[in-house]
Specification:
alpha/beta; Rossmann fold; 7-stranded parallel β-sheet; 6-stranded parallel β-sheet; 15 helices; 38% helix; 15% strand; globular
Length: 434
């Protein structure tokens, strides 16, 4: 996948992608993919990260290990003081009160465009982002969750405080309209009003949330989806899975942590149990396949539908084979900015069944290329699974659907066009000021 700098055009546009990590977490993975999609397009894109897990020469850490640890502790120490030292909510919010001096990094200083991705948990402070914006070069900030449009939380759930000025935060101790969430809202407001920042939402759902937000309703927000390696997925359902025997039909569902409440696993279990009780013929010929991490494996104890849990799948090629052997890809997440498992499943020919609170409508069309169930309605999820099996869709059609929307070539081209338009605009402004 590597592209050497010497292989790029001599006058190639230089882009620094700033992210918390290269490969830890969904936002990091899609940012890493984008880096190489841009490089394949002839752009000199490199990543500046807080935590580096691989040995890619196009990825460099910022700062020293001691200071990275210190910023992480200082941010979470401040949060702990405001949430009653509850670990339950400690990582549901970020305050960006401290961070690394990213604007001094050589790759950032020589870049034509700086793109921020997920920069929380000690990577960057709001003050540092302001310094970056003040450098005069275009800054593009890609949003992977709701943090940019709220005071401090990454997902607001049912809270609508972000439509006002936050305060009385559900993740903090007590009720105070001038709490930490409101104070950070004020700092973000100051940054957004004075900064040279163009925002990118990875789904139309997230862009609509920005329009509702008191912080971002007047911000420059574009929509560019995440890039996925769609071409690497096969729709060959005859693939052999290392001598693993499966039933005729397979429903696949996965997540980094399946029993995270936001993934809505209980609704998947309820839907499958409903099918087991009310459609025994389907249950007899079908098996549910779960992959990913769980903190408590007993979470599947109440599931009567035939199933197996295979844990984390570290080998991407093996995961693609699991998708290829499956018929339906299931997601019951309560909120999902742009659910990657649906894209991956469709790339392998699986019919998606999901709730619609998030970017699902960017991926599928209800009753045409999948099923969007009524929110938190387990029986409608079950109906969606039945619909998927009784209304088969040509796997090649599903593959092409996501290839047209999420291929490396398309997404990198959209970013390249955005970067160039911002550079052209800056050049025009400079000419006017001469």
């Amino acid at each position: 996948m590597e592209t050497n700098r010497s292989e790029l055009p001599e006058n190639a546009m230089k882009v620094a992608l700033v992210c918390h990590s290269d490969l830890l977490g969904g936002a990091s993975v899609v940012t890493y993919r984008l880096m190489y999609a841009l490089r394949m397009l002839g752009i000199d894109a490199r990543m500046v990260v807080f935590t580096k897990t691989g040995d890619d020469p196009n990825v460099m850490k910022v700062g020293h290990r001691f200071f990275r640890g210190l910023t992480f502790m200082l941010e979470h120490g401040r949060i702990a003081l405001s949430n009653g030292f509850s670990r339950k909510n400690l990582f549901k919010v970020s305050i960006a009160n401290v961070g690394m001096s990213v604007h001094r990094h050589p790759w950032v200083r020589e870049a034509d465009v700086v793109m921020l991705s997920w920069v929380n948990q000690g990577m960057m402070s709001l003050k540092e982002i302001g310094k970056l914006a003040a450098m005069g070069k275009p800054v593009v900030w890609t949003m992977h969750d709701m943090w940019n449009l709220t005071g401090i939380c990454h997902h607001a759930y049912e809270c609508r405080g972000y439509k006002a000025q936050c305060g009385n935060c559900q993740y903090l101790l007590g009720t105070n309209s001038k709490d930490l969430s409101h104070k950070i809202w004020l700092k973000k407001k100051k940054l957004y009003d004075s900064g040279n920042i163009t925002f990118v939402a990875v789904s139309h759902w997230l862009a609509e949330k920005c329009k509702e937000s008191s912080l971002m309703r007047d911000a420059d927000v574009r929509v560019i989806n995440n890039a996925f390696p769609v071409e690497s997925f096969t729709v060959d359902t005859t693939v052999q899975l290392k001598n693993l025997a499966f039933k005729k039909n397979v429903i696949i569902m996965g997540a980094v942590r399946l029993d995270d409440p936001i993934k809505g696993l209980r609704y998947a279990i309820e839907a499958l149990n409903y099918l087991f009780d009310n459609n025994p013929e389907l249950a007899r010929d079908t098996e549910a396949l779960f992959f990913g991490g769980v903190r408590d494996k007993s979470v599947f104890g109440k599931l009567r539908f035939p199933h197996r849990f295979i844990g984390k799948v570290q080998d991407p090629s093996l995961l693609r084979e699991f998708y290829a052997r499956s018929c339906v890809v299931l997601s019951t997440s309560l909120y999902e900015t742009l659910p990657g498992t649906l894209v991956e499943g469709m790339a392998a020919g699986c019919v998606p069944v999901t709730f619609g609170k998030g970017g699902q409508s960017d991926i599928l069309t209800h009753l045409k290329t999948g099923y969007i169930a009524e929110y938190k309605n387990s029986q409608d999820v079950a109906r969606g699974i039945e619909w998927a099996f009784t209304n088969p869709i040509n796997p090649e059609v599903l593959h092409q659907e996501v290839r047209d929307k999420f291929s490396f070539a398309r997404i990198s081209r959209e970013y390249a066009e955005l970067f160039q338009s911002l550079l052209d605009k800056r050049a025009e402004n400079n000419e006017e000021n001469v």
